[in-house]
Specification:
By secondary structure, the chain is mainly α. It is 61% helix and 0% strand. The chain has 8 helices and no strands. The two termini are 30 Å apart.
C-alpha cells in the first residue's frame, strides 16, 4: 500500500488533522507544514474510503487504476520517502527521544516495517540519504527536506 492509499484508508481528513496538530505542536516549524492538497480534499469531503472517494474512487464498480511499472520511478519515490523517514528517526535519536533499539522496535512492531529506520539508513548509506534530501531541498526549496544535523554527521 502506497502513501496515498494509506491516507485514504486512515482518512484524508484525519491525516490532515494529525499533520496540523504536529505542525502546531512543533511551533509552526515549516518542516512540518500541512499539505494544501490534504486541506482542500478535507474541505471537499474527499476523505477516502469512508466517503467513497479520496485519492482513489471507492464507489460501487469503480476500477482501481493499475500502477505504472517503472522501476526507475519506483526507486526514486522509494528513496524520497525512506530518506525523509530515516531523517526523522535520526533526529529522534539526536534529541534523545528514544534509544536506537526502541526506535527500531517502534518501526518494526508499530508500523510493521521489515527493518528499523536506523538499520535501513546504514544499509542504504547515510551519505546517500543526506544527498537525496539535499537534492530535494535544492529542487523544491521546501523545509520539509531539511536534514537533521546528526544525519549530516553520519
Amino acid at each position: 500500500m502506497g502513501p496515498f492509499e494509506l491516507m485514504d484508508l486512515i482518512g484524508v481528513d484525519v491525516n490532515f488533522a494529525v499533520t496540523t496538530t504536529v505542525y502546531k505542536d512543533y511551533f509552526y516549524d515549516p518542516k512540518y507544514k500541512p499539505s494544501l492538497l490534504q486541506q482542500r480534499m478535507s474541505e471537499a469531503k474527499l476523505h477516502g474510503r469512508k466517503t467513497g472517494k479520496g485519492f482513489y474512487d471507492y464507489s460501487e464498480g469503480a476500477v482501481k487504476p493499475e500502477a505504472q511499472k517503472d522501476d526507475a520511478l519506483y526507486q526514486q519515490i522509494f528513496l524520497r520517502i525512506i530518506s525523509m523517514l530515516i531523517n526523522e528517526a535520526v533526529e529522534a535519536k539526536r534529541l534523545g527521544v528514544a534509544n536506537d533499539e526502541d526506535i527500531e522496535l517502534a518501526m518494526q512492531k508499530g508500523v510493521n516495517y521489515p527493518k528499523g529506520l536506523l538499520s535501513w539508513g546504514k544499509e542504504i548509506g547515510y551519505s546517500k540519504i543526506s544527498g537525496t534530501l539535499q537534492s530535494l531541498y535544492e529542487e523544491y526549496q521546501e523545509e520539509r527536506y531539511r536534514q537533521s544535523p546528526l544525519l549530516r554527521k553520519l
